[in-house]
Write a structure and sequence with these properties.
The structure is a single chain. The protein contains 14 helices and 15 strands. It has 496 residues and is α+β, with helices and mostly antiparallel strands. The protein has three domains: 17-134 and 466-496, no CATH class; 151-319, 3-Layer(aba) Sandwich (Rossmann fold); 323-444, no CATH class. A five-stranded mixed beta sheet has the order 5-4-6-7-8, covered by helices on one side. Helix 4 (88-99) packs across helix 5 and helix 5 (136-147) packs parallel to helix 10 (306-322). The radius of gyration is 32 Å and the shape is globular.
């Protein structure tokens, strides 16, 4: 009997030692896990980006380069290689979208065109480990949640031979994609019908001028217009594993434009595509193949229509953070007045660059301005700069038309730009008379309804502070130790 007890005690000791050997790695793993949770806090970095200032997308590329630099410094990830980009200049929009998987918040500290012809952007960003390899749709969803969405309208020209009637397949795909991204999609035709009803009401009550203006459609209904030209046809059938499948060929041309200025932001010819569908209905088969083309993700279709969305959002974000490119139109302005307003705007806070485009003293003169002022504040700055000699005739968000105050019948005083709250540092760069840029120092400038430049996503209700996770880890270790001690006590009792 004594021998049996002795053997049992040795067996218990061996089991205890084995248990301890197994628990040590577990305790170490839990400790490392707790430490990693505590140490995996987001980091704040200062990052810079630049791009040649003589290209149309200089601002977007410079901001993208700054975000890429922030991800590299804060998360140790090269967004260019992780997003499989081989040419940054061609695919900067993909890098921009992928960066939003890592950058939680950022603020633009400086931005503008320098003497060396480079557009530079400096940001302060908060970066975490992020979501590597985030796909197009998810990346754009992150951008919409962080920065909001512009108003987007669709103009679709679709013709599919062999498919009776108007299909509207492309329209359906874009509407579904916009809903998935929570974009602000505007139905311009429906808005137009509402304008017609309001015009009829104005006319009934004797306000003919307002009725005519409504019918002219002078109000800007969208910030961007996406245009798609779709051509397709049914090209018979093919045998696929002994089954008949319909064969369809498509070509798609896409572009995005600014409706108020007519500027074409991007034009994308989607590669032609021939696809098969096992669906018996030719309508449904054509729809399935066209959706594959627009969705992309296949070797033949590449990215489909997603580069168009990425470019639209790249332009939208650059406008929010760096200011809008506004076009100023002057009717019959003199040479001295044109030079005067050029210099005045170049020294105005929140205006970073001024480019005279065309001058005609007897006709229309044009000037492009990069500005963080809204249209109302820009109007006030121009009227003040010209001493009240000109008045506003018509304005949209990015296009302002001025005529002489005497011709408009308006007597202008000299208003000043209204100061606002919540401004941020801005580097003022004004064009000098030689066409170069004079880089000013960073300063706090008055704001007038400034666009948001900082991403402020809502914190997750399920997240816990790092110290809470550390306590949880410590608690788990304490429970395991308690179980071990209980087992030891039980073994001692058995031994007696």
């Amino acid at each position: 009997m004594g021998l049996e007890v002795s053997q049992f005690c040795r067996y218990a000791e061996e089991q205890k030692e084995s248990t301890m050997n197994k628990m040590i790695p577990l305790i170490m793993l839990l400790g490392l896990w707790s430490f990693s949770v505590v140490s995996a806090e987001p980091v704040q970095v200062i990052a810079e980006g630049k791009a040649p200032g003589d290209i149309a997308s200089a601002r977007e590329q410079a901001l993208t380069d700054a975000l890429r630099d922030a991800v590299q410094k804060g998360a140790g990830v090269d967004v260019i290689s992780s997003s499989k980009v081989t040419d940054f200049v061609l695919d900067y929009d993909r890098v921009l979208a992928a960066s939003f998987g890592f950058v939680k918040t950022y603020t633009v500290l400086e931005g503008g065109l320098g003497d060396d012809g480079l557009y530079r952007v400096k940001i302060r960003a908060t970066v975490d480990k992020g979501q590597p390899g985030v796909q197009d749709k998810m990346a754009l969803q992150l951008i919409v949640r962080a920065k909001g969405s512009p108003r987007v309208a669709l103009e679709i020209d679709e013709l599919i031979e062999g498919i009776p009637g108007a299909s509207g397949f492309c329209q359906t795909w874009f509407e579904q994609a916009a809903r998935d991204m929570q974009m602000n999609l505007v139905d311009v035709k429906r808005v137009g019908r509402q304008d017609d009803r309001l015009a009829a009401r104005d006319q009934f009550f004797g306000d003919q001028k307002t009725a005519d203006l409504r019918r002219l459609g002078v109000a800007q209904q969208a910030d961007f217009i996406i245009q798609a030209k779709v051509r397709g046809r049914s090209v018979g059938t093919d045998d696929v594993y002994g089954m008949k499948a319909g064969k369809y060929a498509f070509s798609v041309d896409l572009r995005a434009i600014r409706p108020d200025t007519g500027v074409i932001l991007v034009s994308i010819p989607v590669p032609s595509f021939e696809g098969l569908s096992a669906l018996e209905s030719r309508n449904e088969g054509a729809r399935e193949v066209l959706f594959k083309l627009l969705d992309g993700g296949q070797a033949q279709t590449k990215d489909g229509a997603w580069p168009l969305f990425r470019r639209v959002f790249a332009n939208w974000i650059a406008e929010l953070d760096l200011g809008a490119i506004m076009r100023l139109e002057f009717k019959q302005i003199s040479d001295s007045e044109f030079d005067r307003i050029h210099k005045a705007l170049g020294g105005t806070p929140k205006i970073t660059s001024v480019w005279p485009r065309e001058f005609d003293s007897k006709g229309l003169s044009f000037m492009d301005v990069e500005s963080r002022l809204d249209a109302s504040a820009m109007k006030a700055a121009v009227i003040e700069g010209l001493g009240g000699a000109f008045a506003i005739d018509h304005t949209t968000r990015n296009y302002l038309q001025f005529v002489r105050a005497a011709a408009s019948g308006v007597s202008n005083t000299r208003p000043s730009v209204t100061a606002g709250q919540g401004d941020r540092p801005v580097t003022r760069n004004s064009q000098n008379e030689a066409g170069g840029a004079e880089v000013g120092k960073t300063e706090e400038s008055p704001a007038v309804s400034p666009p948001p430049s900082t991403i402020n996503p809502q914190p997750s209700s399920s997240s816990l502070p790092p110290w809470a996770w550390a306590l949880i880890g410590a608690g788990v270790v304490a429970v395991l130790v308690g179980v071990f001690m209980l087992g030891k006590k039980s073994s001692g009792w058995q031994g007696r």
